[in-house]
Amino acid sequence: MMSGKCITVLFLVLGSGLGSGSCGKVLVWPADNSHWLNVKSILEELADRGHEVTVLLSSSFLGTDPTRSPFNFEVISVPFTKEDMASLMEDFLHMWVYELPNFSYWETTSRMCNLISRLVSINKATCDSVVWNEELMKMLREAAFDILLADPLVLGGELVAEKLGVPFVYTFRFSIGNTVERLCGGLPAPPSYVPASMGGQTDRMSFMERMKNMLFYALQDVLFHQFFWREWSQYYSDVLGRPTTLCETMGKAEMWLIRTYWDFEFPRPFLPNFEFVGGLHCKPAKPLPEEMEEFVQSSGEHGIVVFSLGSMVYNLTEEKSNMVALALSQIPQKVLWRYKGKKPETLGPNTRIYDWIPQNDLLGHPKTKAFITHGGTNGIYEAIYHGIPMVGIPMFADQPDNIAHMKAKGMAVELDFNTMQTQDLINALNMVINNSSYKENAVRLSEIHHDQPIKPLDRAVFWIEFVMRHKGAKHLRPAAHELTWYQYHCLDVLAFLLLCAAAAVFIAVRCCLFCCKKCGRIVKKKKTE
Ligand SMILES: *[C@@H]1O[C@H](CO)[C@@H](O)[C@H](O)[C@H]1NC(C)=O
Ligand SMILES: *[C@@H]1O[C@H](CO)[C@@H](O)[C@H](O)[C@H]1NC(C)=O
Ligand SMILES: *[C@@H]1O[C@H](CO)[C@@H](O)[C@H](O)[C@H]1NC(C)=O
Ligand SMILES: *[C@@H]1O[C@H](CO)[C@@H](O)[C@H](O)[C@H]1NC(C)=O
């Protein structure tokens, strides 16, 4: 079956005269948690098509069980454990969800900087364990990979690719303020109508909002320079043995596979080497487990609500969980809640708690009326795929931005996790369930999502195979990468033109004065005569 597909691929490749394409060898530099779940869909498809997939896996990686997988795993031993990572995540969540709302702006910033520097040092240690490990590098070089698939949330993939001389492709959602895409990928983003991610604006901005948007871009660029650019540029230069910068290395990505699509994004300019493949992990719903199906059917005409705050937020404080459970107990729908903490006392008979739920299958169930979500990209896309309106309770990372998009598209109501009360949650649920405009918008976006000439997963895999076949995609690379910032904005040309104009004006004025003087003299002469 596998080799059959592979031969088909081979035929297609030979048939279209594209040279010696065969099943390739793919090296993967993954990021953890939900990022891994997304990339795994691509890797499974690649493995299905007969490619050999090898994942460079840090020994502290939380997201996968290497024994049950069609991939090879090359485990990198790093000087910290899974427990360290889990506790770092816990600290991060606790700080973000419970402490930040009480902090002043400066305290928040200093905590964030502290956390970022912890993450950077972990990231660097992971890189160290690969690039300075001669044996591993030799093995990887001899394996002669055709492509490296990297997630820039964890830096280093591009460095390994560069060291191995292998073309690489990025897969990710965004960087804050789109700094990496803009500065390193060359993606144009006019601040007048392309809202900076995490800036909280939509594509229709008033004067003040445009100013805010522009300043947000500028601020993020400064922070990026401060926290990443200098330090990592030095590291990359040391490893590669020649002067380079982080951005220059990142900008060598052959393709950027972005985890969104026009059902989600505001229309904006993009480049031929950016491909929007949002929702590639979505699949039609499968039947539910029997016990669950019975519960869902018992909801009658009111239907069900699916509730999950994602794989990272396991439990809430007792106060919060009681508040949430009380709200849920007061709606006519049945609720399936993914929750691992202590059972709340106010839990109503219409609500059931599960350690884990088959989220995609539930969202695809005809009885599902609404989705209460933290707003992770994977969950958002499952809701778009199945056309389910949502109540968003965003917490961190890309979640506020995702919910802001869904709100602007009329498919979601947003709640603030820190200030919401029982009645807010009830109102929000009633709104998305009773007011048909939310469902209509959800169905409209779902139709847009499904009406594509090529499915997102197939497009992602096509471009990965394309890069393998052609050893890159240089024909899509904009020349912007070779320009300096003042050349890019034509500031040198403007300066030259201004200079010319100034010179012309100067000469004209000089001429005028000269003529006037001459005339004056002639007139005087005539008069004296
Ligand atoms: C934050 O403030 C709220 C009240 O404003 C308080 O209930 C809560 O305990 C505080 N959280 C922390 C971590 O100090
Ligand atoms: C979540 O559960 C863990 C243990 O299961 C506990 O240590 C932690 O305090 C809990 N967090 C909250 C916010 O209740
Ligand atoms: C929404 O509909 C439910 C019944 O399905 C009803 O109990 C609830 O009051 C309605 N809410 C609003 C705001 O109309
Ligand atoms: C339904 O929601 C839309 C969008 O928020 C709003 O404009 C409209 O007034 C709502 N309709 C009702 C009956 O509440």
Short description:
This protein has 529 residues and is of the alpha/beta class. The protein is built from 19 helices and 13 strands.
Helical/strand content category: alpha/beta
Instruction: Give the percentage of residues in beta strands.
Output: 5-15%
Provide the helix percentage. Answer: 40-55%
CATH topology of the largest domain: Rossmann fold
What value does the average pLDDT take?
89
Q: Please outline the major beta sheet.
A: 7 strands, parallel
Bound molecules: 2-acetamido-2-deoxy-beta-D-glucopyranose
Spans of at least 5 consecutive residues with low confidence: 7-21
Report the radius of gyration as a whole number of Å. 28 Å
Family: Belongs to the UDP-glycosyltransferase family.
Subcellular location: Membrane
Membrane topology: Single-pass membrane protein
Pfam family, one: UDPGT
Comma- or semicolon-separated keywords:
Rossmann fold, 13 strands, 3 domains, alpha/beta, globular, transmembrane, single chain, 7-stranded parallel sheet, binds 2-acetamido-2-deoxy-beta-D-glucopyranose, 529 residues, 6-stranded parallel sheet, UDP_glycos_trans_CS, UDP-glycosyltransferase
How would you characterize the overall build of this protein?
InterPro entries: UDP-glycosyltransferase, UDP_glucos_trans, UDP_glycos_trans_CS. Keywords: Glycosyltransferase, Membrane, Signal, Transferase, Transmembrane, Transmembrane helix. It is an enzyme of class 2 (transferase). The protein is of the alpha/beta class and 529 residues long. The protein folds into three domains: 23-216 and 249-279 and 464-472, Rossmann fold (3-Layer(aba) Sandwich); 290-450, 3-Layer(aba) Sandwich (Rossmann fold), CATH 3.40.50.2000; 483-513. It is 50% helix and 11% strand. The chain has helices spanning 2-15, 34-48, 82-99, 105-131, 134-143, 157-164, 179-184, 207-240, 246-250, 290-297, 318-329, 359-363, 377-386, 399-408, 422-434, 436-450, 456-470, 485-488, 491-528, and strands at 25-29, 52-58, 72-76, 147-150, 168-172, 255-258, 274-276, 304-308, 334-338, 351-354, 368-373, 390-392, 412-414. The strands form two sheets. It has a seven-stranded parallel beta sheet, sandwiched between helices. The chain has a six-stranded parallel beta sheet with strand order 10-9-8-11-12-13, with helices on both faces. α13 (377-386) packs across α16. The longest helix has 38 residues, at 491-528. The N and C termini lie far apart (111 Å). The structure holds 2-acetamido-2-deoxy-beta-D-glucopyranose (NAG) (4 copies). The site of one 2-acetamido-2-deoxy-beta-D-glucopyranose has 2 residues, from loops.
